[in-house]
Amino acid sequence: MLSSDELFRVGRIVDALRQSVGDGEFGYRTQGYLAHVIMRIGGKIIDIKQRGHPDIVASLSGKTLLLQAKSVHSKSRRREFLVSTDDLEGIRPHDPTTIGYLAILDCTMPPSWIMVNYEKIKRQALSTISLVTLRAMADTKFSHECTEQFVKLIANHQSNLHSLYFHVLCSRALRGEAL
Predict the structure, then answer these.
(1) pTM, entire model
(2) Does any domain span residue 179?
């Protein structure tokens, strides 16, 4: 169980990193962080795309995960989220062993992952949805697991976060080298 102090300390680290590298680069790194979070909970990364959909393909507990990663922060004024048809199509399962997730890293204090299953969000294409609603739609257990591992990852690597570029995070994840 994470303490409030840990969550807020990591929130400050994440916010400083985002401000330092810029929103675009931070968005790419969010994908890499998610890949390593999935590995920390027992998953294997199959593919990571810098462009296109889904961002990440992974296997976890006998299932294939299709993950589309996004990040939002308090200063972005993006307390509402537009669900694109491309994002939804990218995470649409094509067989019973596949699960799609819209994965949103909410960087407001305290930071947390919001993991929304495709089945819960599939009818929301081109709709603007509040983060509160997305949080209510989220897979609570999976969101909590991802948040816990993300906080541990950031806390353990705070001294070298600036050198963990998107390509470094991806190449390590694809080789199975968890952070």
Answers:
(1) 0.93
(2) no
